[in-house]
Amino acid sequence: MEETPLSIYLEIMLEQIKKIEEQIEKATAQTKEELEAFRVGVVGRKGIIADLFSKMKEVAPEERKTFGQTVNALKNAAQEKFDELQTALEDLQADDINHHDLTLPNIPNEMGAVHPITKVREEINRIFERIGFNISEGPEVEDDWHNFSALNFPPNHPAREMQDTFFIEKDPDIALRTHTSSVQVRVMENQKPPFRTLSPGRVYRNETISARAHCIFHQVEGLYVDKNVSFKDLKDTLYYFAKEFFGPNTKIRLRPSYFPFTEPSAELDVSCSVCGGKGCNICKYSGWVEIGGCGMVDPNVLKASGIDPEEYTGFAFGMGIERMTMLKYKINDLRLFTENDLRFLGQFKGL
Ligand code: 2NL
Fold first, then answer.
1. Over the stretch 286-301, which tens digit does the pLDDT of each residue have?
2. DSSP 46-57
3. Which residues' Cβ are closer than 6 Å to ligand 1?
4. DSSP 8-state class, residue 209
């Protein structure tokens, strides 16, 4: 069958489409912007292909099929080209991220520092380990028994109030521990004397945060239970610790005090390590700073954990780790310990 010759209009159109096809074939996109320009100019709603489709009405009805098929083929080729360019560009960008120049000098990993509280806590542990204390740890969420009742706290002691303690549940009471004595109660319940144990750890009290107080802080408590443990043993132990931690010229002082869990009880002061006892603004010109409290374990406390107070006696003490760290490193604001400011933490590198 003889083919009908194409109209001059269609011939010119097909010629143009061929040129467009060649251009599309050669197109490149090195950047996101170039890729976007291709999308808008070629395959977009107002691009060259949409423009060609709009010419359909100018084509003679018997030639529309040929025209339509040609433009459709172009459209498919252009879409394919666009996908190709897009994939290539994504690969290029991924390459930039993944392939460093391995010949460049290395960026050194910056050495971190141990947190001063951790450092001091470990130093205290080592000092007490040298005289036979082991380290005991326990839960930070405690029941009423281990935090209060077993320690001889009377039923309406202020520490049992919401204003002082963070409660998780009421009746039965579950709270964030307010001291690490709770760990020592667990030791007394589970072990037979004699034992010497040290319980460092995080404790919680419902305090307004200031330069001197925080609702989260650290404590270390010590407990020694044996036959014939005396108040002199307590003093010797604390004196040994103070000299090891603050330096050989350190003195200690015990002032009578009261705790529900010890009898007799005392506050523990050390001679000011900043001025050596001469008087400065750290010790408020008294020469002494308080670092904790201590006493002989109350017979009721021993009994509550199943230890016979007729057979055994014990001493106990508690000290604030933040307080000791502040004295040792002359830090004047407790909030620095929890703010994670690298200008502060970086000063403890290599110490
Ligand atoms: C302070 C005072 C103290 C204790 C803690 C204790 C533990 C048991 C039995 C008896 Cl299991 N006592 N601990 C004793 C006296 C004082 O802490 O100012 N801490 C920062």
1. 999 999 999 999 999 9
2. TSHHHHHHHGGG
3. 181, 184-185, 219, 221, 223, 259, 261-262, 292-295, 297, 301, 316-320
4. -
